[in-house]
Structure formats: C-alpha cells, structure tokens
What we know:
Layout: H1 4-18, H2 38-52, H3 69-82
Helix pairs in contact: 1-2, 1-3
Amino acid sequence: MIAKSAIYENVVKIFRNKLGVVVPDTEADLFETGMMDSLKFVELVFNLEKVFGSKILVGTLELDQFRTIANIVKFVEESMEINGIYTT
C-alpha cells in the first residue's frame, strides 16, 4: 500500500527525472505553461504505469485529469483505490 505523500513524491520525480520538467507549483497548469505537450503526456502515462503498477486505459483519460500535479496525484490515488493498492 502506498500513501498520498509517496504518490506525490513519485509524480514529481517522474516529471523531474523522466520528463526533464521542474513544476513550480502543484496547481500550475501544465498545458497552458507549455510544460506538457503530447509527447511528454505519453511519456508521463507510460511512467505512471511503470512506477505505480497499474494499467491506464488511454481511451478513458480526460486531459483535465493531467492538467496539474494535484490532478495527477488525485488520478493516481483513484486508480490505485480501484486496484486496492492505495491507503491514506
């Protein structure tokens, strides 16, 4: 089981280490600021699957779920709750 703080830390690490992006604020709009583009989005989804061990169905995704770090953490939490691998 993984805690919310660990999810946040891992998401930030993905951005920094895999995408080469330092996000200044958990509420910064990743698309409007240009920190996220289509290629980085695909890389993000791949790395989220790899780090958190859950399959993400691309056809069911909404961009708003990935607009901010806070939204991504919430998305991962919900995905992990469904799979029974998340705790608060």
